[in-house]
């Protein structure tokens, strides 16, 4: 298990990095709590939009169910600290992500943003394929 520290409140939290290319997935974060939505590339909705691993195409945001907290999954949203609920900085996250990543010793570097090929799941807060069945 990997741990990071919030730059705002200094609390630590567990996290998992997802390589959306290897995982054949897209992602979005809840705009209220930061929960990650991981969306399978094999779902017909993503295939219809010429799927590319990474953030969910914005046109598909309206096809998702709301987050259990009441917020909405957005391609432009960011993960949040599970303690203070403030947005986590991808730049600040570089320190703990690269420290914990085995590939860093071989030259791998973190992308330093939340819009790239990698996504992050904080404290196991995620949902898979939260498509709204009334809009499919």
From the structure above, extract its key features.
about 140 residues; alpha/beta; 5-stranded mixed beta sheet; 3-stranded antiparallel beta sheet; 2 helices; 8 strands; about 25% strand; globular
- Briefly note the structural class of the backbone: alpha/beta
User: Which overall shape is indicated by the principal axes computed on the Cα atoms?
Assistant: globular
- How far apart are the termini? 36 Å
Query: Uncertain spans, ≥5 residues at pLDDT below 50?
Result: none
The number of E-state strands comes to: 8
Q: Report the average pLDDT across residues.
A: 94
| Beta-strand percent range | 25-35%
**How many domains make up the 3D coordinates?**
1
Largest beta-sheet details = 5 strands, mixed
Rg for CA atoms: 15 Å
- Residue share in helix: 10-25%
Order of helices and strands: EEEEHEEHEE
Number of helices: 2
């Amino acid at each position: 298990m990997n741990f990071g520290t919030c730059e705002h409140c200094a609390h630590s939290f567990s996290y998992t990095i997802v390589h959306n290319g290897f995982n054949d997935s897209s992602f979005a974060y809840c705009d209220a709590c930061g929960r990650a939505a991981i969306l399978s590339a094999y779902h017909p909705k993503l295939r219809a939009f010429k799927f590319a691993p990474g953030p969910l195409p914005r046109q598909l945001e309206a096809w998702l169910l709301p987050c259990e907290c009441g917020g909405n999954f957005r391609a432009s949203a960011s993960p949040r600290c599970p303690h203070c609920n403030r947005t986590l900085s991808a730049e600040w996250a570089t320190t703990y992500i690269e420290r914990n990543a085995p590939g860093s010793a071989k030259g791998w570097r973190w992308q330093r943003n939340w819009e790239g090929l990698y996504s992050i799941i904080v404290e196991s807060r995620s949902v898979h394929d939260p498509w709204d069945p009334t809009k499919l």
